Amino acid sequence: MKTAVLLSGGVDSSVALSLLADQGHDLHAFYLKVWLEDEVAYVGDCPWEEDLHFVRAVCEQFNVPLTIVPLQAEYLDRVVGHALYELRSGRTPSPDIFCNERIKFGAFFDRIDDSFGKVASGHHAQVECENGSWLLKRGADPIKDQTYFLSNLHQDQLAKTLFPIGHLEKTQVREIADQLELPNRARKDSQGICFLGKIRYRDFIQFHLGTRPGNIVDQTTSQKLGTHEGFWFYTIGQRFGLGLSGGPWYVASKDTDGNVVYVVHRDQLQYNRCSSFSVRDINWISGLPNSDQLQVRIRHAPELPGCTVHRSPSNDSLDVELAEPDAGVASGQHAVFYNTETCLGGGIIERG
Q1: Is 343 annotated as catalytic?
Q2: Is 99 an annotated catalytic residue?
Q3: Averaged pLDDT, 279-307
Q4: How far apart are CA 163 and CA 122, in angstroms?
Q5: Averaged pLDDT of the chain
Q6: Catalytic residue among 46, 59, 99, 274
């Protein structure tokens, strides 16, 4: 089978390529270039030279051809534009989810020809076909599982997708990399968003939105506790990066007009927990679920708390009741639903 492999320079995608090569796939590797030249100039030294160094080295080791695909315009239009709009509105977008749907398994699909039967990546997830329908299954490693970020994929995308390491835990991936003496076997996992490599998410936001000094205020007492550089740097439930003494403090809400970030102390956190919210723009991967009792993730985390969902008559929105209230429910983020091991899909949170 002729297979396109998305390489990022990391261990996961490199091991994925090695497994497919061992299985006899006819491979062609692709590195997606989505970063913008202005962003590179803002950061300074190009942070992707090391990525490309490892990508080329892995391709040489397995004698696999490599093509660099420029998708800057598509990325700016389909991912960055949405993220910036949401941030300016005081909401918390999930750019990785749209990057997977619209770029890696969207615009890239449009760039390659029909001779490629499958597109493979190093995601920790699994795909199965059951009764003619493609299912997205959780990866074997509960901590590294990336189905949350893949929840917007559609049937036609999953039909062409391979996740060769989805059945492995991260320690097993590292062991394979060591056994094969991959050039990037000791490389740490990337913490950047999507294909932005080493650019920190905060730096990405600051490049596009700049700074706007404002106050951090105790929501309980209305007392000013400190200052911030812009409400768009903060999300509901955030604890770290506040720079406040006497904590821990958590972001409780934001006033976008007044540029105020409201926080609550841990002692008051229980009063700021959210037990219900609505979800719009829902993508059900393989049709409507059969039960109203599901599990849900409102962020990328290994936990799968229970919830009850109530569908609208038109099935275009949901009301969600959490089994356990959560202080980190943020408008704009994705709520992703599960039936044990199967990722059912998700949508965008609207918190009242």
Answers
A1: no
A2: yes
A3: 93
A4: 6
A5: 92
A6: 99
Domain with CATH 3.40.50.620 in the chain: 2-201
- The one catalytic residue in 59, 194, 274, 307 is 194
- With tokens 């299954």, the residue in question is 137
pLDDT attached to residue 35: 73
**How many residues make up the chain in this entry?**
352
- Tokens 């205020």 belong to 217
123 near 178, Cβ under 8 Å? no
Q: Report, in angstroms and rounded to the nearest whole number, the Rg of the chain calculated over CA atoms.
A: 21
User: Token pair 């700016």 is at which residue?
Assistant: 76
Contact 27, 15 (CB under 8 A): no
Determine contact, residues 151/334, Cβ cutoff 8 Å.
yes
Q: Which of 301, 284, 286 is nearest to 337 (CA)?
A: 284
In the chain, ranges of CATH 2.30.30.280 domains: 211-265
In the chain, list all ranges with CATH 2.40.30.10.
Answer: 273-350
* Structure tokens that stand for 160 in this block: 């062409």
Residue 138: closest CA among 149, 125, 129, 127: 125
- As a whole number of angstroms, the distance between CA 310 and CA 257 comes to 33
Nearest Cα neighbor of 17 from 123, 172, 164, 116 is 164
DSSP state of 31: E
For the beta carbon of residue 213, count every other beta carbon within 10 angstroms. 9
Domain 2-201 has CATH 3.40.50.620: yes
Band (pLDDT 50/70/90 cuts) for residue 351 is confident
Q: Please check the confidence at residue 106 and state whether its pLDDT lies above 90.
A: yes
- Map tokens 């609208």 to a residue: 312
Structure tokens at 99: 């990057």
Is the CATH number 2.30.30.280 carried by domain 211-265?
A: yes
Question: Residue 49 and residue 233: Cα distance in Å, rounded?
Answer: 28
Distance CA 244, CA 234 (A): 14
253: CB partners within 8 A, 6+ apart: 219, 236, 262
Place domain 273-350 in its CATH homologous superfamily.
Translation factors (2.40.30.10)
Amino acid in the structure at residue 28: H
Tokens 């959780």 sit at which residue?
138
